[in-house]
């Protein structure tokens, strides 16, 4: 949609991976966790229930597809899926691959440890592998 604008905080904390039917797929730039965010490209939507029925169905399919893909790609022990929006009101869904023994395990990732930025080559490789898996997998 031409009038869709990504929230500035999401733009600051992520890099673009790919576009699905409904959502932008973004990678959180914290290398501590394999962490994607899906953002439905709809204007002024804060909650899942504000999407129309077709978009709700598409969102669930895309969450499932991305979670399965990321889980397979990184061999996660657990996939965390959350749509909080307490800090960023624009509807976005976190899909986080978790591992027993990761720095926040078994608690939530938010604020557990300071973010670790990706090295440039690592960021490029991570984005490419996720994009390839989603587009060709």
UniProtKB/TrEMBL annotation:
Residues 3-105 form the HIT domain. PROSITE patterns: HIT_2 (PS51084). Pfam families: HIT (PF01230). This is HIT domain-containing protein. The lineage of its organism: Bacteria, Pseudomonadati, Pseudomonadota, Alphaproteobacteria, Kordiimonadales.
């Amino acid at each position: 949609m031409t009038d869709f604008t990504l929230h500035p905080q999401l733009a600051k904390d992520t890099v673009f991976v790919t576009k699905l039917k409904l959502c932008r797929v973004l990678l959180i730039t914290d290398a501590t966790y394999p962490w994607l965010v899906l953002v439905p490209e709809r204007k002024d939507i804060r909650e899942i229930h504000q999407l129309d029925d077709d978009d709700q169905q598409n969102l669930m399919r895309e969450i499932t597809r991305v979670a399965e893909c990321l889980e397979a790609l990184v061999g996660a022990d657990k996939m965390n899926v959350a749509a909080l929006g307490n800090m960023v009101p624009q509807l976005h869904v976190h899909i986080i691959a978790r591992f027993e023994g990761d720095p926040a395990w078994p608690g939530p990732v938010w604020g557990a440890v300071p973010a670790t930025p990706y090295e440039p080559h690592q960021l490029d490789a991570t984005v490419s592998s996720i994009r390839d898996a989603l587009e060709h997998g």
